[in-house]
Specification:
Alpha-Beta Plaits, 416 residues
């Protein structure tokens, strides 16, 4: 950043002001994901290099991360962006220097309480800044945090989680070491390593050596624990991260059917399988909620259902402002229907796994509580928590601070 000339700095300042003014309404009013809105903006700006895109992306997402407080402080957009950057980083980007007020200093690395205290000193007229302002109202109606974890919840919420990789062989660790990229191995989940948020791996090649996959997502498939050579159905496969992991665990003698209602998601799933040299994954369009269940039965069925997505708020800070307090109850009804349809395709003695990247009561325990009484042939099956090794009685809520990563609810049911 020190090498930026004045022309580049001024251009980046103008671009930051432009995206805050023109793109924010698409997110807050039309509820479009910020990453997709930003991607469309970049597609129309071919002159922007990787340095510009990286700055604008970090600026935009930092703005949403601290929107609850900067809105309470009634700051103009560019000032809010500068303050948000200082709350996240240990320096101030040259493009935001002019927007910062005298006396503002970097607060990256400070605790949330230390940041709040600093802002109270900088803005003596403000009455109070509450950590609850950092999420949309009525959060507590659907989320019951473990006793004593409220501070940890908000602390994690305001930090970018690391990028998690699932290694398909150990050779890539040597590649990272030679490239000077620091990584950490998960103490319990074999093959799971993390690198710093925003770390670029593009120049290292891929060769099917790893998958970018959040730690909570990796935990889902570990809990599924498919037997080598078995036949599984990933009923809401999306871009295929879990389908590819299932295939790696099952081996060449098994089969994986990956279905989704979005053709573009299945195209991405196909690309991932091909990049990993995996031939046992078959893709098919299927709407689990509406289409008739398959007549075939599988050894295992994974339902990673669409949900409110509240568990991804650390990674996608804009999502907390696009959320609707009605979402959990509405999604619950859809999830129960999907789980019932999937259950019809599980063999006797087979496994049904239900997962959602959220932590609302409606979409987690209430779904299993509604499903089980109507399906007496299924029972929750105990397993070891893949991130801690502790015994779990059939269902677990992975909290964002446990990865750290996404929040995820996972239940494993056995058909008797």
């Amino acid at each position: 950043m020190k090498n930026l000339n004045e022309k580049i700095i001024n251009q980046q300042t103008r671009l930051a002001a432009e995206i805050l003014e023109t793109l924010t309404p698409h997110v807050l009013e039309h509820r479009h994901p910020a990453d997709r809105v930003l991607l469309r903006f970049f597609k129309n700006r071919h002159e922007l290099g990787s340095r510009d895109r990286r700055f604008l992306s970090e600026c935009f997402f930092s703005w949403f991360r601290w929107l609850g407080w900067t809105r309470a402080l009634q700051l103009p957009p560019l000032e809010a962006a500068a303050l948000s950057w200082l709350l996240d980083q240990t320096d101030l980007h040259p493009a935001l220097v002019a927007a910062a007020k005298p006396g503002w200093t970097p607060l990256g690395g400070k605790t949330l309480e230390e940041k709040r205290a600093a802002l109270t000193g900088w803005f003596p007229a403000i009455q109070t800044l509450d950590k609850a302002d950092l999420v949309f109202p009525l959060l507590g109606k659907s989320v019951h945090l473990p006793a004593g974890s409220e501070d940890l919840f908000y602390e994690t919420l305001q930090q970018r989680p690391p990028t998690w990789l699932r290694l398909r062989n150990d050779e890539f660790k040597q590649t990272l070491t030679e490239a000077g990229i620091a990584f950490k191995e998960h103490p319990h989940l074999s093959g799971a390593i993390s690198v710093g948020a925003g770390t670029s791996l593009g120049k290292l090649g891929h060769g099917g050596q790893y998958e970018v996959q959040d730690i909570a997502s990796q935990a889902v498939t570990q809990i599924a624990a498919p037997v080598p050579g078995s036949d599984w159905w990933d009923a809401c496969a999306g871009a295929g991260g879990k389908a590819v992991q299932l295939a790696d665990l099952i081996g060449r003698d098994g089969k994986v059917l990956a279905t989704d209602l979005r053709i573009e998601a299945l195209h991405e799933c196909k690309k991932r399988a091909h990049a990993g040299g995996i031939s046992i994954v078959r893709m098919q369009l299927h709407d689990l909620a509406k289409d008739a269940p398959f007549k075939k039965e599988f050894d295992g069925v994974l339902v990673d259902a669409p949900c409110s997505g509240w568990g991804t708020w650390s990674r996608n800070p804009d999502a907390r402002w696009r959320s609707d307090p009605r979402d959990p109850a509405q999604k619950r009804n859809l999830q129960v229907r999907m789980l019932k349809n999937a259950a019809q395709c599980v063999k006797s003695g087979g496994v049904l796994v239900y997962s959602v990247c959220t932590f609302t009561r409606e979409e987690t325990v209430e779904v299993t509580e509604r499903f089980l009484p109507e399906h007496p042939g299924f029972m929750l099956e105990p397993f070891a928590h893949p991130l801690t090794g502790e015994p779990v009685n059939g269902a677990v809520q992975v909290w964002p601070w446990e990865g750290p990563g996404d929040g995820m609810f996972i239940a494993r049911l056995r058909k008797s």
